[in-house]
Amino acid sequence: MKKQLVGMIIVVSFIASFTVAPKAQTGKIYDIDVPFDFIIKNQILPAGRYSIGRLHEQNPDLLLFRSTVGKARTVTLTQRMSGEAPKVGSMLSFNCYGDRCFLKSVWVAHESYASKIVSGSLERKVKMLAEAKVVSLFETGQR
Description:
By secondary structure, the protein is α+β, with helices and mostly antiparallel strands.
């Protein structure tokens, strides 16, 4: 029953991402170039420039990733983790296993926490076969 409820919440959040007016996306948004294909949960996103931000200020744990050229987009539910935010700008951190890179966390400059992406089933399988290399990318511009 819990799995069905969580699944429904994720589906509703995903559908809402396509119908939300731009004004509702009031969270901090920044652009970042990702030079490789990457995976969020179990969804593969192509290399490219992405706008990343909070779907709603009232729920900072919902992040929207949207390609700036193309149709790739996803919404993901995150968990907050404490730590010191980067001073130079916002940052994405990935766990890479060979040529597969999984988004690990999102850091927004000057915030007191990061948003951690929970591993999907694909990453859990790959993790058993190889050691992760951590790759970090910094923002290229704020809006």
